Structure formats: structure tokens, C-alpha cells
Amino acid sequence: MPAIQDTYPDDLGHCYGCGKNNPHGHRLKSYWHDGEALARFTPEPYHVAVPGFVYGGMIASLIDCHATGTASAAAYAAEGRELGTPPHRRFVTANLNVDYLAPTPIGVELELRGRAVEVKPRKVVVEVTVSAGGKPCARGRAVLVLTPDAMRQS
Amino acid sequence: MPAIQDTYPDDLGHCYGCGKNNPHGHRLKSYWHDGEALARFTPEPYHVAVPGFVYGGMIASLIDCHATGTASAAAYAAEGRELGTPPHRRFVTANLNVDYLAPTPIGVELELRGRAVEVKPRKVVVEVTVSAGGKPCARGRAVLVLTPDAMRQS
To answer: How far apart are CA A64 and CA B11, in angstroms?
Structure first.
């Protein structure tokens, strides 16, 4: 089963956070199984807020990209279609809300789990938890909308 | 007048988003004047969501670091003290809420403006707007708390 992000069409695969076509970026990979999306990511040693702990922007970015992927997979699932088949279901974020529950240690693989709590044709709401070593560090809720035509160049 | 982030003590100046001591990071600089913090930042060409537009994680990261800086300056102002004087007022984020109002164009200098809407000794609430070419693209609200001792290594 490919990563959700690897099923995005090429013109929508350039995201710095998760695009397979962005050689500079994080290339987050989220996998869909049984109604839940799972991703694992280990920040670089310099991705710190203060020494020892991951900076908040990275955590927000991971939640954002994982939520976008979760929304895509949930939309395909709701339509009973296989991931990546046209017409494409690629989402962008309208609102992102992150609770930082505990300092997130650097040098540890982070686990993100996402679930859609609302799925409509053009809008999906996703909740994501970020854990380090089994301990929840952050929780996010994102409202995603289908990528507007104005953002597509092909 | 130095940037707010440049007045953080050395052990709290390593943030990937805004730390003067992080050679890999964005080094966002926020300047305090007359009750408002202002920062300008131009993302790199590869910091895209889809071609032409800034990725959401970058916008969240900029809002996060600018809000943290705004909180610090507002806390000093509330105490009638000069920025950077001990005891230090360096904040971390408890909650970050971002509304993406419009696609944010890449290749344009972004302007961030932050104001504190609540200032307590250990908690500050900040609102930030992000504009490109004078047009608001995102709006953020952050709840910041004084950096816990557990996150300090000196």
C-alpha cells in the first residue's frame, strides 16, 4: 500500500512538508489502514525549540500534512474508491488548531495518528495525535477543504 | 532596537524558527514598537504547498515564533522593564490556532503583525496577522506560557 502522499497527482506533490516531488522537504509519509492514518517521522537534531525539544512549528507542520493526507484517504474511503484514482481528492487547510501537551523530545521517532471526524464532499475535519515513545506530546484538529482550482496550475 | 529574539538568553536562542544560535533555521526577527511586534520574512522558493503558494506549516511556524516573541516583549512592557533584562521572559506555546484566509503567494515578502490581547505573569495570549503585498493571508491566535524549568538546560 503506497503512502497517501505518493498517490497525489504530480502537480499536487510539491509540498515542502510531504510532497514526493520536493527534494528539499520533509517528505512525510502517511499510511491508511482501517480508518486511521499513521505516520512516523524523526526530526533532525537542529529542529529544536530549545536544546532537547522539537520546535513547535515542526509539530504544527507535521500535523498539517498528516491531516491533509488523512482527509484525502478518508474522502476516497467515503466514496468507496481506491486512493489516487481520478477525480483527485487533495485537500488544503482552512484551520489548524494545535494543543502542545508536553515538551516533545528531539532524537526520538514521532508517531502521528489521524482520524476523520467529519467527511463531506468538499470539507473534512481531522484529529491528529503526536506521540513520542508512546507519550502524547501534541494534539491537533484541522479543517480541510478540497484544493481550490486557483491553486492548481494544470 | 534589537530584534526581540536576539534578546533571549543564549540557552534559549536555539529555536529553528527564530533562534540566533541556530545556523540551520529561519532566524525570524520580530521588532517591538508601540505595543505591536512586526516581522518580515520571505520563504525560500521550495517552501511551497503547491507550486506558487507557501506551505501551511511554514505559516504556522512563523506565527508561532512571532507570537512567542510578541509575548516576551509584551511581558517586559507590562513590567516596565527593558527587553532582555533578567529575570528573562521567554515563552513557549500551549495552543496555536491558525485560520488560512487565502493562498499565500511564494516569492513575496510576508509581513507579520502581532499584538498581545491578554498579559498575565505566566501566560500571554497573542493575535498575529500574516499579509502578502498588503493582503491578509492568515490569522493566528496563540496561548503562550513561560518556559518551564524542565525545558531549560542551564
So the answer is: 29
